[in-house]
Write a structure and sequence with these properties.
Strand content: 25-35%
Family: Belongs to the metallo-beta-lactamase superfamily.
Number of helices: 7
Protein name: N-acyl homoserine lactonase family protein
Cofactor: Zn(2+)
Helix content: 10-25%
Number of strands: 13
Mean pLDDT: 96
Shape: globular
Strand order of the largest sheet: 1-2-3-4-5-8
Organism: Streptomyces endocoffeicus
Keywords: Hydrolase, Metal-binding, Zinc
Structural class: alpha/beta
Distance between the termini: 26 Å
Length: 275
């Protein structure tokens, strides 16, 4: 894809789409939280409100939607994987589903010019079908596409082919400025082709959306703390430090992939936005 001239985006809308429930160990392997000493062996596991969000970015050259959250039919769609028992999408209200969130902003699927997937796990790619036939340009990392379409069978972990098999993706490689002020950051480790997104805004400055390259503030550290769901641990550590370096150089606001406390503290659509 052709890189654009560096400018700034116009607005960022953060769409909170409810939460899954899960054992925190899936997201964080940290002493005192999920790793118990022998004196704490009777303490119950900590279940966590694993929030999910999408990001709508308005730029002078088009509108971009970052990720699509979980589908309404999550329980039946995820059943082949068995993971619906571990990540129930049970903390969501009618107004928090993606279609409702877009509607609150007066946005229809056909208004989206670019649909960018940070990666193709089922809690990020679950609503790709909403954009079928709309003309939206679907984008993911080339290594993510290679992996997601390359394995045998219907699913591999949280990659579920029914989410994305009918989609026609354009791919990027390396760090790519896709629209004015919007740069996709290569950040593998969680999956082979995970990306983060850097958005430069005139008033707010730089925002860095990590997606699952960094789950939460406790993951970021320092030191970086990994999770039970990491495809390549060596690559994951390198990606966290890459993100940290970008954030420090650009004085960025870092927005983590599933940090419930942080998400609640942000300006959320439809009432708030960043400019």
């Amino acid at each position: 894809m052709t890189a654009k001239t560096a400018k700034t985006a116009n607005k960022v809308h953060v769409l909170s789409c409810g939460a899954m429930s899960c054992d925190l160990t899936w997201l964080l392997l940290k002493a005192g939280r999920t790793m118990r000493t022998r004196t704490e062996h009777e303490r119950p596991p900590e279940w966590y409100s694993c929030t999910t969000h999408c990001v709508l970015v308005e730029t002078p050259e088009g509108t971009l939607l970052w990720d699509t959250s979980c589908p309404r039919d999550w329980e039946t769609r995820w059943a082949p994987t068995g993971l619906q028992e571990y990540f129930p999408y049970d903390q969501v209200s009618e107004e928090e589903y993606l279609d409702a969130r877009l509607g609150q902003l007066g946005v229809q699927p056909q208004d989206i010019d670019y649909l960018v997937l940070s990666h193709l796990h089922f809690d990020h790619a679950g609503n790709i079908g909403m954009f079928t036939g709309t003309g939206a340009r679907l984008v993911c990392h080339e290594k993510e596409k290679e992996f997601a379409f390359g394995f045998e069978g219907a699913f591999n972990g949280a990659h579920l082919k029914t989410d994305y098999a009918a989609a026609d993706f354009d791919t990027v490689s390396g760090d790519t400025e896709i629209l004015p002020g919007v740069t996709l950051i290569e950040a593998p480790g969680h999956t082979p082709g995970t990306m983060s997104m850097k958005v430069d805004l005139e008033e707010t400055g730089t925002m860095l959306f990590t997606s699952d390259a960094v789950y939460m503030g406790d993951s970021y550290g320092p030191p970086a703390t990994p999770a039970a769901i990491v495809n390549d641990l060596t690559a994951w550590y390198a990606s966290v430090e890459k993100i940290r370096g970008i954030a420090e150089r650009s004085d960025a606001t870092v927005v983590f992939g599933h940090d419930a406390e942080q998400l609640r503290s942000m300006r959320l659509a439809p009432d708030g936005f960043y400019a």
